[in-house]
Amino acid sequence: xxxxxxRFLTSSLGRKYVMAVSGLALVLFLVAxxxxxxxxFVSDSTFNAYAHVLESNPxxxxxxxxxxxxxxxxxxxxxVLIAKNRAARPxxxxxxxGKGAKTLASTTMSITGPIVLVFLLVHLYDFRILKEFxxxxxxxxxxxxxxxxxxxxxxxxxxGLIALGTHLWHGFQSAFQTLGLSHPRARLVILWLGRLxxxxxxxxxxxxxxxxxxxxx
Length: 217
Prior knowledge:
- The protein starts with a helix and ends with a helix.
- It has a single domain, classed as CATH 1.20.1300.10.
- With 217 residues, it is an all-alpha fold.
- It has 9 helices and no strands.
- The chain is 80% helix and 0% strand.
- It is globular and about 55 Å long.
- Helix 1 packs across helix 2.
């Protein structure tokens, strides 16, 4: 059993399967994260209460460790697969969808991925790390408002969102294809579902800085 699992995880197919599953799990996290953040539109106190419920959950450290593991696994496998693809085809990377099906999103996965990673690190620093060093009067809702209503903060945020939306535009349907989705009709549904999800997540997260700038105006 251990030998089979080891061979699977070290094989090209196994790596692609794990990367696809981890990617889809991260999409679920994004949906849940956006749903929670929408409480900011209700009131600062509602948003802070939501954040307090999460932070007071004794399972939060375990959930954060699992989430970090998903990110690390997804990133590590992406690096390995990109390196192997380039080594096997040094002249030009060919999308698994084949010629004629390549898109801007599919050909920039190795670019949008690192941008999303940098954005994630900045995001964690702004709203997780700084909070640990703040005093007891720290207000997360106010911190979010201050960060996203500033020109620099909003610019970084939008760059990260554009990269994330572009990454998901191709990555969502690619993950299902890797997991064995082959029927043409099913592939078409997944393709448009992924595009709809990418746009919805982008607009959902982008609504915060837009709203804050409107309040300032």
